[in-house]
Amino acid sequence: MLRIGENLNVMVTKIGAAMKEKDPGPIRELAKAEAEKGVNWIDINLGPARKGGPELMEWIVKTVQEVVPDIPLALDTSNIEAIEAGLKVHKGKAMINSIMARPERMDAMIPLAAKYNAQVIGLLWGPSGMPRDENERSELAVTLVSAMLEAGIAPEDIFVDPIMTPVNVQQDQIKSMINFMMMFSDIAEALAPGLKSTCGLSNVSNGAPEHLRPILNQTFIVILEKYGMYSAIVDAFDEEMTAFCKGERPKIKKIIEDVCDGNEPNPASLTKEELDYVKTAKVLLGHSLYSDSWLEL
Ligand code: THG
Question: What is this structure's pTM?
Answer without folding.
Answer: 0.96
